[in-house]
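Support case: flavin-adenine dinucleotide complex. Customer-provided input:
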Amino acid sequence: MADKVIVVEAGMDQCDIDRTPSALFTDDEHQRYTWLCRHSGRMAIKNHRNGSVRDPKTSSPPRYSTLVLDASGDEWLTNWERLFETLRIQQLRNPKFFHVDPAHRDALLEFAVTSGRTGECAEVNGCVGRERSKHARKKERAAKRQDYYTPSSGLFVDQCRGIVDHYCLRDGMIRKEVVEDLDYHVGDGVGEGLFTVKTNRGMHQARIVVIAVGPGNSPRIPGQIPGQRIDGACHVMQMEKFPDPVVKTKITRGQTTNVLVVGGGLTSAQIGDLEIKSGVTKVWHVMRSHLKVKPFDLNLEWLGKFRNVKQAIFWSADSDEERWEQIKLARNGGSITPTFHKIMKAHVARGRLSVFTNTVVEARVWDPGAQRWTVQTEPEIDLPPLDYIYYATGIQSDIRSLPFLQTIQKKFPIESHGGLPCINDDLMWKDEVPLFVTGRLGALKIGPGAANLAGARSGAERIAWSIADILDENDVNLVDKDLSSLGIGNRYNSLTSDSETDPDESQESA
Ligand SMILES: Cc1cc2nc3c(=O)[nH]c(=O)nc-3n(C[C@H](O)[C@H](O)[C@H](O)COP(=O)(O)OP(=O)(O)OC[C@H]3O[C@@H](n4cnc5c(N)ncnc54)[C@H](O)[C@@H]3O)c2cc1C
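Agent response - structure generated as follows:
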């Protein structure tokens, strides 16, 4: 049987596919709305006129048959947990109202309070009220303090686990499969057609597909093809062991070790710090622009009290091209938090770290015998032979080079800007193709925050609304419908009968 919805990923976005419009209302409207929604179902309500009592609702499983395909694993957040563990990230970067619970904006705060873990929220100094005048800032300082606390990684993950249980998203919903190709066969109306999804383990069918693949493309070491691994260097998003075994052996033997870190974002600072703490003699850190220090990944105007104004300007831009310009301006490349800036300065003062801004790596040569690199930079700096290079250079998103989107792009071409697809306002590929795109790839319609947790939540909300509209309108069970009437003939009937031999089929069509 065809799934009604297939989600490609098991990161953040799917956790919060629900119908609560927190992304679209102002905070006050949203809080009132969610309070009503929340409390009406969670407690017994007594009718004072007739004395009847309505019992609290229990959570029910998702309304639609949903399958999640994730290359990283068959558990929620596999990739996130791997990265956070490898990079030993203790605290999230963005404020605690960035989370994936669709219930309400302060759900993570509520979770921290009810589980007695408010101590795991760290205050971010120096930004409360920065978006206001000095006078207004003074007046509001006390009231708004709580907005700028960041949660610990453990608190955030535990809240996510709670959400998964609350919305019954656990049992067999995720499969570890890599999506290799996606095709769509148009039906009579939107959502009446059928997707065929080819993975490394087989075929699936769905009426709606959601793509939430993070940056999408594979990490790339400059000069190599995407995903390719080489000796003596890695892209941090592909890092498997830390420190690298060869470097570790040299440290254990008491040899002098030099490591190069390339990149200007928070991950580059984190990796440099970890290297020094693991015993590397010296870290050389090069970045192509100046060092930017910012508490959050976006400028405060996109997160603070007046972010709705910024978002409104973004949404009312005349074209996707204009929106792309706004995204570039808002993100402005990688930046480092004040906390890590302080840590870096301490390492520099102790002579364990040298930072070179406005510097790029021009060439590198690996000596397999000595197991060391010779690296040339522009402008030239005096680098010793290097034992390892970490590329913390981010991942470029470009749908044109995403292998699994090639068929769709040929069959249903759309434009792109900066590698991001020009999807419609419902985050759909095209009006007649119910392929939804969220996360970083949905940035032209979600906004500059698309790549962070707030973007993940707002994208999920918009998609959930559209899915509900499509499926509620055409709520026809495909099992009872002759698939050939969808214009796809016996080819897919045979796929369906193939899957009957699959012992996991009951999960797929749950
Ligand atoms: C190190 C790090 C720290 C971060 N810290 C913060 C923070 O503090 N605050 C914040 O707001 N945001 C943070 N972010 C951003 C946050 O992780 C993203 O907003 C969020 O994960 C986006 O969710 P997603 O589901 O769109 O993508 P992801 O969580 O990236 O998940 C994408 C999934 O898709 C899978 N996938 C990709 N291609 C395929 C395919 N072809 N077939 C099947 N599966 C596929 C991947 O394996 C992956 O599991 C951080 C990101 C990183 C990398």
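The longest strand covers residues 202-211.

Case will auto-close in a few days if no follow-up is received.
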